[in-house]
Amino acid sequence: MSRQFERQKLAAGEKFGAIKSLADPDHKYVSFIVCRDPIEKLLSVYNFMKFQVLENERNQKKKNPPEWQKYFSSRNIPSWKTFLWKLSKGFTGFDGLTDPLVNKCSPCHYHYRAVIKMETFEEDSK
Length: 126
Prior knowledge:
Distance between the termini: 27 Å
Number of strands: 2
Number of helices: 7
């Protein structure tokens, strides 16, 4: 739903122009990055995947399930330990859900006005 809203409000060229402008310290946007504890993020992704394959009936009926379900199916749910072990060995079959933030938002290359921690979102967003 959010991608659809984004496309209605902002052309792709405008979006990528705005993102590119964040490389300039004097950009005109209110920019911030939200990060979270990496272990908490991985646990959240793990629980999300378990929910999707065990309890989300709508997801179970899809003809073309997400790619990650090949590695995380209701018949083959990895343990938390196995999940972490796969990731530590460089496994990337989870559609980017487990990618580190540094791979997505380039916090070292863009000039954000604020860094907000998910765990302290309420205080950090003020």
